[in-house]
Amino acid sequence: MQNAPLYTVITLAEALQDPATRDWLTLAGVHLPVEVPHGRMPSPNEMQAALENTAGLQVKILASGTVWQATVTSRKDVSWASLRFRDYHGDPDRPQSFCFEGGWDELIALVSSRLTPRCGPLVLLHDSGVAPQVIY
């Protein structure tokens, strides 16, 4: 049994397809661009490259035929983040949904921001119901 994610991650385009989520973002004061790129989820290989190419991070990856997860720790302080691909089935090149199982908000935002040049804007949906965070 998996723990409930701390943050579920979706693309901004996906978030804006749902009127309730669009309203939630607007009410939270999130600036929404007029034109939103379609966006997509990263592949595990893209995630690994983004993590390993971010200075100041130490990355530990656990991968098997049914699991792909990473623990990321800062080399500067005690911050950390844990993420996993939700329904991983062994193909590290296929874009897939992922979530953050725990960690520090600043490091979660940093990791997410490293994916946006390739994947487009992402939205972090916190399990507590606080306002979503858009990462450009």
- What is the radius of gyration computed over CA atoms, rounded to a whole number of angstroms? 15 Å
Span between termini: 32 Å
- How confident is the prediction overall: mean pLDDT? 93
Percentage of β-strand residues: 25-35%
Number of separate helices: 4
> Unreliable stretches, pLDDT < 50, 5 or more residues?
none
Biggest sheet details: 7 strands, antiparallel
Q: Major sheet: order of its strands?
A: 2-3-4-5-1-6-7
Helix proportion range = 25-40%
> What's the count of strands?
7
Structural class: alpha+beta
Order of helices and strands: EHHHEEEEHEE
Shape: globular
Please give the domain count: 1
Describe the protein's architecture and organization.
This protein has 136 residues and is of the alpha+beta class. It has one domain (7-135). 29% of the residues lie in helices and 29% in strands. The termini are far apart.
Task: Furnish the topology, listing elements before pairings.
Elements: E1 7-11, H1 12-17, H2 19-27, H3 44-52, E2 57-63, E3 68-74, E4 80-85, E5 98-103, H4 105-119, E6 122-126, E7 133-135
Antiparallel strand pairs: 1-5, 1-6, 2-3, 3-4, 4-5, 6-7
Give the key terms.
136 residues; alpha+beta; 7 strands
Structure in a nutshell:
About 30% of the residues lie in helices and about 30% in strands.
